[in-house]
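thread: overnight batch results

M.L. [08:02]
morning all. the overnight job finished for the chain we discussed friday. pasting input first so we're all looking at the same thing
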Amino acid sequence: MRTALLLALALAAAPLPAAADYYYSSGRRHRLSRLPGLWAASSEADGRAGARRPHRIVRAPDRAAAAASLPRGVPRRFLNPVFDDGGGRPLVITDEFVARFRPGLDARAIDEVNARHGAVILRHAGGPPECLVLSAGGGELAALRLANRYVEEGHVAFAHPNFIARREKRLVPDDPLFPRQWHLLNDGQGGGVPDQDIDVTAAWDITRGDPAVVIAVIDDGVDFGHEDFNEDMFVPGHDFIDDDDDPSAVESNGDFHGTAVTGIAAARAGNGIGVSGVAPECRVMPIRLVAGKGETTPEQEGKAIRRAADEGAWIISNSWGPPDGDPIFRGDEVVYPLPDIVREAIDHAAENGRGGKGCVIVWAAGNGNEPVGLDGYASHEKVLAVGACTATGARAFYSDYGPELDLVAPSGDGHGPGIWTTDYSGSAGYNPAGQFYEEPTGNYTGSFAGTSASAPIVAGVAALLLSVEPDLTRAEAMERLRRTADRIDPSTARYDLDGHSDLYGTGRVNAYAALTGSTRHPRLSIAAEPDRLRPGGIPSLRFEMFRGRDRATNDGAVYLAVGIPAGGLLFVGPDYALSAQRIPFVPRISASDMSGSVSPGASLGRVPVGRYMLYTAIVGDGSDPVDPAAWRHAPARAAVEILP
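M.L. [08:03]
and the structure it wrote out:
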């Protein structure tokens, strides 16, 4: 790191060439490519402090021609080339940049740096007091150049343009109230498979949520007049588009998404109308951010997340993010880095929210059938990245995947039923005036889908969990949600020895299991006693079985295996003798918990010197033969070392 810093300082001593189009994120340079013939302009008459700067994009062969096409007599704020965001969409560099100065610099030193470079402090950017939004003046790409200069001269922890970029609402609509909500209770309606749901009706016997638990929904605003909402379900929010305290959805902008997301998470239940949310007694903090064209700045995004945490949100639900690729006609994979100011806001919410216990931050993984890791937002280690599964218990074709995926939740995929939820009331929305889905009022839709629908389901389950265990930390709540998920579709999922699948994460969220700490599948822990042996030694295997809750069967089969360095497997048979063959079963287990200790009928004398992993595999129905993917779905491991 020191070498890299010295190199950066050396580079900073020379003027930057005009063609050096890049910016910094997480200490790394990210190249920028210009979109030929496109220019972004903003005038002094546009906008107000704290709101996104209005701009226009004009097509012209060069800067002079672009300037000539603008209204005369109105001073320009900026006129800059437009860049490709990596996916062919415009990325606009404004005259502002965000900088977090090094903590060692006091206000006087910061003022000296800014005066030397001609930068002017416009406002605080949110977060630490040394995190500021600055104006770089009206020169071409002045904010980009100056932000880079601040990084390279070592004045800041980070700096980047306060660019305007496209952020999409993660919705994949399909073609076309409680009985239809298969994600809550799946009886096979609409062609689904019974029981492929989140077990929330069983969880409701424990709680329907605590009003003290607040879910912040960062989206495009809410239809507060909706019949299935009431004023008691909301706490004050904010509009970061218009910079005011009214986060109402704007019909003319097509702001329908946030109403649907809010309904999935917390629509009122038991009122005799409409649908039910997952956590119908919890409250919602609406934050309007990704509205209209979906254009935001890193400053706005960071402020929105900080506002949610600082104003009392317990859970933050995000069904938005960088643009997705085409899930069918795959193209080049585009990396969207997480702007540093947004990263710091997420870290702040995760570590300091909820009185220091941390906010549970839920993020829609994306709908591009591409790696979650391309998206710096959803792949952040302190958020839950949520993919989508269908009414048949399979992966939605568009759902993003990869090691960063935490778990999945129900959604539609265009071939089966979508998610029923609240729609913008009346003649607008996804079901305008009740034209579709056999729902005449137009106040509800059955078409909501994408990971946009999956994320608020998980947010709702998290709200139920914190309603009964409010002292859980953010990390503990996240781990509970992951650990108690249903490992669906094991033959395709390929769950690894830690119970993770790149397609499903740890599985589909299960509300009842999360609240009770139980799992659908049996779990087993194992230890070798002793764990260091000479050749010919005979270890005992101490085990403890937790049956959990398995509606399919009351017994199962357990396979104990020894992994060897070459990657092969030796299986422990019914007599606990080492065998190279898969065995039909080890003694069947009952529904009651089990614990005990067993010894193999043979020594480990044939096993070469080395360190081995003993691990288990459990098959819920005791079937034989066992699919290799299935026996991996509930592993427990213990080390044993064979000494010379």
